[in-house]
Amino acid sequence: MSELKSSGFQPDLARLRNMLLRFAILQLRDRTEAEDAVQEAMLASMARIGEFRGQAQFSTWVFAILKNKIVDTFRARARNVSTRVYDEEISADAFDALFNESDHWKKHERPSAWGDPEATLSQTQFWTVFEVCLTSLPPATARVFMMREFLDVAVDDVCVELAITKTNCGVILHRAKMALRVCLQNRWFDEKGA
């Protein structure tokens, strides 16, 4: 750490810890396990600080370590099979109105052109809006989405961890992606076009 401070790098560890903890609580749904995972990730990052090359942001590097700690927790839970109940009921699909009878986009509901995807993804503001959209999802839906898409947990493992069926998982992922699409369309892409 002293090497990094001498180079002018000083991470805001309190802010980073809060970001890590919010993410871990969303995923693990248990504050104690989340705090343990964050503490282990931060200790591991400090122990391996010499490996940090500055090719990514420090927070991104620590988040990668935290992702591994969360996946380890999921694996440990899978070994100790429990009967936790998944707390989200499946309601009528709110997105049916976007499609016609043959499951194609209705003319006025089609996504507008999003421009150059690579340029958009590289913009920090996009990820700020994405986080707002993700936060607006129901917690259980956001959890399934983050487990599958961010942590890259296999669908079978998501189903075991959350005690849901593959069909239910697929429906939840579909709804999460649709809600994120609508939110990003309204809060990012339409704003950029205007």
Automatic annotation (TrEMBL):
It holds the Pfam family Sigma70_r4_2. InterPro entries: RNA_pol_sigma-24-rel, RNA_pol_sigma-70-like, RNA_pol_sigma-70_dom, RNA_pol_sigma70_r2, RNA_pol_sigma70_r4_t2, RNA_pol_sigma_r2, RNA_pol_sigma_r3/r4-like, WH-like_DNA-bd_sf. Signal peptide: none annotated. The keyword Acetylation does not apply. NCBIfam families: Sig70_famx1, sigma70-ECF. Belongs to the sigma-70 factor family. ECF subfamily. This is RNA polymerase sigma-70 factor.
